[in-house]
Structure formats: C-alpha cells, structure tokens
Write the structure tokens for this entry.
Amino acid sequence: MSWHADHDFRVTISGGSVAGLCNAITLRKLGAAVTVHERVPGPMLARGAGIVVQRELIQLLEDNNAGPLPFTTCRGRRYLDPDGGDGVLQDMPQEFTSWEAIHKALRAAVPAECYRAGSAVTAVSQAGSKVAATLGDGSIVESDLFVAADGSGSAVRRQMLPDVEARYAGYVAWRGTLDERDVPSDLFPFFNDRFTFSEARSGGHMLAYFIPGPDGAVTVGSRRLNWVWYVHVSRADLAHTLTDKSGVQHRSSLPRGTTPDRAIADLRARALREIHPKMAALVSETPDPFLQTILDVTVPKTLFGRILLTGDAAFVVRPHTAGGTAKAAYEASVLARALQSARANVDVALQSTERLQLEYGNALYQYGLALGNRWSRERNTD
Ligand SMILES: Cc1cc2nc3c(=O)[nH]c(=O)nc-3n(C[C@H](O)[C@H](O)[C@H](O)COP(=O)(O)OP(=O)(O)OC[C@H]3O[C@@H](n4cnc5c(N)ncnc54)[C@H](O)[C@@H]3O)c2cc1C
C-alpha cells in the first residue's frame, strides 16, 4: 500500500508520554492524521524527575519547531567517597531537564484534537494493511499504522510477544527533588554547578544535580535539586517495598506522595550509614522520596505488520545510560525519515525502521547492563 500526501494516512498511537508524543509530532509533520490515546484521564503526573539532556531529543524539538526545552547546566562532576570529604572534581559540562519539562514541550506541539486523554487501548488486530484498535469504552478505531508507545508494561507488547517479560534487575531507584529554596545553605555550594556522585558502602550509588523548577524556571533560586539512589532490594522484599502508605501494592513504582513514613525513615537511616554525609543530608531534607524498580526488557522484533512497538514498550534500558528519552526521540525520527524516503512503500519503511530500532535498542540495552552491573551487587542473570 502506498502513502501519498493526498492520502489520509491514519496513525493511532497508544501512550501519550515521551515516545507517543515524539511520534505524534514527527508523523503529523509528514501529513499523517494522528490520534494519541493516553489512558491517564487528567493532567499527567510527573512519574520521573531529572533527565540528562540528550542531543536526539533536542534535534527532534528543533526539527519540528517545538520547545524550547528549559534546562540547567553544570560545569563538571564531583565523585565522592562514602567516608566524606570534598571528593574528586572533573570538568565535564552537562545539561539537565525534567520529565515534566520534556512532556510539556512535546505536548504543546500536539494539538488538542489529536490527543485523547482517559482513553486506553485494550487490544489490537489487523486485517491486510489496516489495524483495528479496541479502546477502553469498547469502540474500535481503524488506522493504517499503529504505534505502541504504552511504556514498559505495554499491553500491545504482551499481546504481540507474550513470552517477553519485564525482568527485575535486582535494584530500585529511590528518587527525590528538593526545591532550591529549601536546600540548606551548607549543602548548596557543594551541589551547585556539579553533577555529584557517591558510591554507597554496600553497593549501589547515588547521584544529584539541579533541574528546572516545576514551572520550568532555571534561574538560581527557583530550581530543584534532584537525586537518584540505586539500592539493592531482594526479590523477596520487593512486594513489601512496593506497598504504599495505604497498604496498596504497586507493580513497579511508588508514585510521589505514596511512600510510607517508615520506609522514608528507613531510607534516611540507611543513607547515614551508606553514603557521603552531604548526600545523606540531602535524602533527609527531601520530604517525599519515591521509588521506581529497575526493569530490563528486550524484544526480538518491534514490527508486526502495521503495528510498531516503540520507546519503553520495545526496549527498557537501564537509567544509567540516561538514554531512554533519547531512544524514544531517535526512533520517532527514524520512522518519520523512513516513511518520507520510502513514500511509495510504507511496509519497506517500517522494516527499515525496525532494523535500526533493534540495532540501537540492543546496543543501548547492553551498555546499560554493563553500567548497571558495575554498580549493582546482584549480578544480572540473563
Ligand atoms: C529511575 C529512572 C530514571 C530515568 N532517567 C532517565 C534519564 O536521565 N534520561 C532519560 O532519557 N531517560 C530516563 N529514564 C527513562 C525514560 O523515562 C523513558 O525511557 C522515556 O520517558 C520513554 O518512555 P515511554 O514514553 O516509552 O514510556 P512511558 O513514559 O512509560 O509512557 C507510557 C505511556 O503509555 C500510557 N499507557 C500505558 N498503557 C496504555 C494503554 N493501554 N492505552 C493507552 N495509554 C497507555 C501510560 O499512561 C504512559 O503515559 C529513566 C527511567 C527510570 C525508571
């Protein structure tokens, strides 16, 4: 089947987060009629916090007249020993942003009529070159291409690749942000202008950097100090760790504001024992740490006829790569370029997209595994 500019090429996307929105932007620019279905009904809660700015995302925003993306900068790194001291400094400028800032910049570039909040895709089926997607309300939408950007727990991936499972990597990421105005004066100069790392005594490590404020402000005084601490949690303890203050057990994360008080107290006590005193003070000052489990997902295929898996729905890479959003942006750009250069043959374009996705996804996955295994005590078993 061919795709011409005058043909109404319809694309349905499940997931309105980073990967879904990147694809909506690039495919709309090509002239496709795009609808994003996001199961979350209201405003999207910030599920992440700090993100290291990567070129692929900036390029996508620039190429599509989207953004600007607010970001903070630092001039170098500080490597700390858990025993204390000022650590080792290294010049290495870096830029940081936040999940909210990325989401806001991408969402602003997708018109309201292309985005359906509170609309889950429950199943997909295809006949010839058409894909029928069943929505949560029972209705069915038909399109020429279906892009599954529904994240690490992707329902579409489960349907297409039932044997592929998200594997627990053996550790979790405790995360937190502290408004800059609440950062104690003895901590501020230590963390300001630095990407700070501390190894932990029993394995794992913590890192911290300034990110834009909740409203995207980047001036000194209005930013947030963001931290991530990778902590080993045995499989046996995971269910308990993922139980929130109301007693509800979550699948893979404890959203901000739901962490039980005793878990916060335990985390603070552990920080005093395990990491650099200034990092421990940062953990103590943070009001509502939250948690994400670290998962591994690899797929042997991303393309099933006219159904394409993308973003975390395809590969979930370790966060040490700081590459998840870059991967999502790269995949969206690759798909758009392939469709543009093979306008006469959508299926050829999709096949070349899949090849590049598998190459990039596998390479980033392996890199993340190597970085993670350097830090984690429980070695990956696959
Ligand atoms: C601890 C941690 C730190 C990280 N740090 C970084 C970093 O520094 N830099 C970086 O680049 N990346 C980082 N990442 C990864 C990054 O957040 C993701 O890779 C990136 O945002 C791409 O996500 P996505 O859009 O594919 O999936 P998600 O963000 O998970 O979005 C999936 C969306 O699909 C929706 N959805 C789910 N099911 C359905 C359905 N059936 N129908 C409709 N909608 C559905 C969900 O509500 C959600 O909005 C980190 C991840 C973790 C866990």
The pocket of flavin-adenine dinucleotide is lined by residues 14-20, 37-40, 48, 51-52, 120-121, 149-152, 155, 173, 292, 311-313, 319, 322-326, 328 (CB under 6 Å).
